[in-house]
Amino acid sequence: MNKSILIGAILVLLVGGGIWYFTQNQQTQTPEQNQIAPTPTPQNNQTNEQTEQPEDTENTQRVIRYTDTGYTPNTLTVSQGETIVFHNESSKDMWPASAPHPTHTNYPEFDAKRAILPGETYEFTFTKVGSWKFHDHRDPAKFGTIIVE
Q1: What are the b/e assignments for 109-124, b being 16+ CB within 10 Å?
Q2: Which residue segment(s) compose the domain that 20 sits in?
Q3: Shortest CA distance to 148 belongs to which of 89, 60, 72?
Q4: How much is the pTM?
Q5: Is residue 98 a contact partner of residue 128, using CB atoms and an 8 Å limit?
Q6: Potential cystine with 142: which of 54, 78, 136, 146 (Cβ 3.0-4.6 Å)?
Q7: Residues 60, 23 within the same domain
Q8: Number of other residues whose CB lies within 10 A of the CB of residue 22
Q9: Torsion-angle region of residue 14: left (phi > 0), alpha (psi -120 to 50) or beta?
Q10: Do 64 and 73 form a contact (C-beta atoms < 8 A)?
Q11: Are residues 100 and 128 in the same domain?
C-alpha cells in the first residue's frame, strides 16, 4: 500500500515537472525570433564548405541545412532583417546557437534554447550587422558563420 502511494506520488511529480518545464521553455521564446516548425526544404548536393550569396528576390527567408556532416552552407551572407531557417535533415537533434560555446554570448538572442528534432526547423531573423559565428550546442565541432550586411 505505502509503496503504491509513493510510486504514484513520484509519477505525479515527474509529469507535473515535465509540463512545467515545457511551458516555461515556450514562454521564454519570442515569436519573431524563435519559430520552430516541421517545414520541408528543397534537397541539394552542396558540400559543407560552400558559401551561398543572397539572391535578388523579395523572399527574405534563407535555408541552412543541418546534416550528419554539419551545416550547409556553413557560411552565408544575408542582408540585415533577413530570416534564416535552420532545417534539421540529420539523424539526430541539433541546437543552433551563437558562439562561443557553451555561453552563446556573441549574439545571445540567436539561440534555439532547445534541441531541434530531425525534420524540424528553427528560424531566426538577423537584425544586427556583423559576422556571427554559430555552432551546434550539442556538437560544437559543427559550426558556421552568418555575415549580416
Answers
A1: ebbbebebeeebbbbb
A2: 1-30
A3: 60
A4: 0.61
A5: no
A6: 136
A7: no
A8: 11
A9: alpha
A10: yes
A11: yes
Residue ranges in the chain assigned as alpha helix (H): 2-27
92 and 44 belong to one structural domain: yes
Give the model's confidence band at 6: pLDDT under 50 very low, under 70 low, under 90 confident, else very high: low
Q: Is the peptide bond before 102 cis (omega within 30 degrees of 0)?
A: yes
The rounded distance, in Å, linking the Cα atoms of 129 and 140 is 23
Q: Average of pLDDT values for 35-51? A: 43
How many separate domains does the chain show?
Answer: 2
Instruction: Residue 123: give its domain's CATH number.
Output: 2.60.40.420
- Element of type H or E holding 108: none
**Can you point out the beta strands (E) in 23-107?**
35-37, 51-52, 61-67, 70-72, 75-78, 83-88, 96-98
**Can you tell me the distance from the alpha carbon of 77 to that of 145, in angstroms, rounded to the nearest whole number?**
8
pLDDT tens-digit readout, 126-148: 999 999 999 999 999 999 999 99
Length of the chain: 149
Cell representation of residue 20: 512545467
